[in-house]
Amino acid sequence: MGRVIGLVAYHVFKESVRDKVLYNLVFFAVLMIGASYLIGQLTAGQDVKIIKDLGLAASSVFGLFIAVFIGVGLVWKEVDRRSVYNLLVKPLRRHEFIIGKFAGLALTLFVNIAMMAVALYAVLGFMLWMQPGLASSAVEAPVLDEQLLKAFALLYVQLLVVTSVALFFSTFSGPMLSAAFTFGLYIVGHFNADLAHFENVVESQAAAWLGKALYYLLPNLAPFDVKAAVVHGQPVTAVYVALTAGYGLLYASVMVTLAVLVFSRRDFK
Amino acid sequence: MRVLRLLTAAALLWGAALSLQAYRQAWHPLPPVSSDILYFRGGAAVSRVALGFDAILADVYWIRAIQHFGGTRRARESDRTYTLLYPLLDLTTSLDPHFNIAYRFGALFLSEPYPAGPGRADLAISLLERGLAANPKRWQYAQDAGFVHYWYRQDYKSAAEWYDRASRIEGAPWWLRSMAASTLAEGGDRQSSRQMWLRLYETTDDTWVRNNAQLKLQQLQALDEIDALAAIVIRHTQLRGVPPRSWNELVAVRWLAGIPLDPSGTPYELRPDAPGGVALSEQSSLQPLPPQFLKKSDPKT
Predict the structure, then answer these.
(1) Of A248, A145, A230, A146, which is closest to residue A189 (Cα–Cα)?
(2) Confidence category of residue B136, pLDDT binned at 50, 70, 90
(3) Each residue of A175-227: pLDDT tens digit?
(4) CB distance A53–B55 less than 8 Å?
(5) How far is residue B278's CA from residue B248's CA, in Å, rounded to a whole number?
(6) DSSP of A34-94, one letter per residue?
(7) Which of A4, A230, B12, B204 is deepest in the core (most CB within 10 A)?
(8) Which of B52, B53, B63 sits opposite A43 (nearest CB)?
(9) Averaged pLDDT for residues B30-44
């Protein structure tokens, strides 16, 4: 089973490379290098903070677009091209196909996020090398702060959640609708705290319960965002990272399971 | 060969498009770009729709605040309004409540008297109070609030209260307590002002603030030197009956070792209309000197 999933995952990764998805890394690198030069002229000594903010925000945006736009096509493309018929007659079970697809995109995202993290550290390292005084002026957090890795790690898990949601929609819907649903859930996922406290703004007990139920049902994405905390050198404990990542991985597993369920019941005759 | 032909064709088409654009602009000039647009007003609302991109949006507003301040300072005097400065700083700090330098810089930007700034020390204090509410351990904001009261409002009682408040925050340096006492006792005194700028110079982690503190320290030094030179000029006037026409007269009688230069390296000027007969050159980068000390520079008063 593991070998089959691995094969599907490998092919998803290979396809994303063939589709030039990794080209975004070049764009990211150019953006970071260009910004590191320009921002120094504009920000009155805040270049390190802004480069960190920009690097993390750009990783988040690029990762989100990859997760959504590739995620929504993972299953739909196979169905649309009718290649799914050829695949399913092979010794490949439907759940292995779905899990393999998810694992393949997870691998693509991992390579992307890892390379972006390396590029951000490289730019920061270069800035430090060019201006050694930065080390003493960066009072909130060190220039080459290992805490940044926590932000990248949680970002990656957040993207896994988004990927799983996109994959789930991809099992029964077209790419346009799936992308719209996924982006919608991404936005709602950042407003979840409002749903948790819905009883403060409505009088109806039923509506308050509904809000609370939605809070638990929908992905809660805001806790994955520790970008600002990390950049300001505020503590992000390992326990917090582990709990949030654990929630994300479990939520993604639920969505992949649901995707398997929907896909298993689809009739391709 | 085919690639080269295609590249050439693309370059030619691009050149033609650019020429057309330039031609059209010659006849129909582009409308001026207004930078006086805030886009959003409520910081809290922007923070809600930022979807986790609050920090990068705060950076964008911070850059806009700097550009607005710098651009307005360089504008013609009639166009200097600084109307967007506080809203931009408000947005920056609402999006990123831990944006340390936006509070500290922002307070200085807002306090600078017109035309170098909007002269809104009240808004500066309000910004710093918000900073303290979001970061209660940042004694530097309370120090800055004391400083704004001291330097820009000459309200020494409030300044002393803020220094005292700063000294009671955990981790604050010992000298803030003595600064609170000396501000109350010797408020407005040039020496205590020097101490204040020196402390700011030593405690800041930002180059701009440090450079600004250095400039103010040099201005205070220039005021002391003007006093000393004015005393020499008055003595010369009393002895000779007329003020010296040039510094060379004083150098010739060895009352001065050479042409006196201000801390920026520009020679001081002998000016009969100036208090004490000595003034900072208009070309000096130390202009304008802090107005609250200018009267004191006149040894006759």
Answers:
(1) A248
(2) very high
(3) 899 999 999 999 988 887 777 777 777 778 888 888 888 888 889 898 899 99
(4) yes
(5) 14
(6) HHHHHHHHHSSS-HHHHHHHHHHHHHHHHHHHHHHHHHTTTTHHHHHTTHHHHHHTSS--H
(7) A230
(8) B63
(9) 64
Band of residue B299 on the pLDDT scale cut at 50, 70, 90: very low
**A236 burial via Cβ count (<10 Å: 0-12, 13-18, 19+):** middle
- Token code pair at residue B218: 């040099």
- Is the CB of B206 less than 8 angstroms away from the CB of A137? yes
Whole-number Å distance between alpha carbons of B10 and B18: 12
Q: Which residues pair with B270 in a beta bridge?
A: B278
Among the partner residues A137, A186, A227, nearest to B205 by beta-carbon distance? A137
A4 touches chain B (CB under 8 A): no
- Chain B interface mutation, best of A49, A182, A187, highest count of B Cβ atoms under 10 Å: A49
This prediction has a pTM of: 0.74
Cα(B268)–Cα(B297) distance, rounded to whole angstroms?
14
Residue B55 contacts A, CB cutoff 8 Å: yes
Nearest Cβ partner of B54 from A42, A221, A228?
A228
Provide the pLDDT for residue B253: 85
Structure tokens at A236: 């992000």
pLDDT (tens digit, 9 = 90+) per residue, B198-224? Answer: 877 887 766 777 787 888 889 889 988
Indicate the DSSP class of residue A149. Answer: H
Reading the block at residue B169, the tokens are: 């925050």
Which domains, and CATH codes, for chain B?
43-212 (1.25.40.10), 223-297 (no CATH)
For residues B95 and B80, give the distance between their C-alpha atoms in angstroms, rounded to a whole number: 27
Of A42, A43, A228, the CB nearest to B98: A228
Are residues B206 and A42, on separate chains, in Cβ contact within 8 Å?
no
- Could you give phi then psi for residue B160, rounded to 5 degrees? -60, -40
Q: Rounded to a whole number, what is the distance in Å from the CA of B244 to chain A's nearest CA? A: 45
* Record: contact A43-B56, CB cut-off 8 A: no
CB A10 within 8 A of CB A101: no
Per the CB < 8 Å rule, is B48 touching A227? no
B150/chain A closest Cα distance in angstroms: 25
Whether pLDDT at A41 is above 70: no
Q: Over chain A, what is the mean pLDDT?
A: 86
Interface of B with A in 170-229 (CB under 8 A): 205-208
* Token output for A32: 């970071």
Residues of A in contact with B96 (CB under 8 A): 228
**Rounded to an integer, what is the distance from CA A158 to the centroid of its chain?**
5
DSSP H or E stretch at residue B74: helix B54-74
B256 Cβ contact list (under 8 Å, min separation 6) = B232, B247, B250
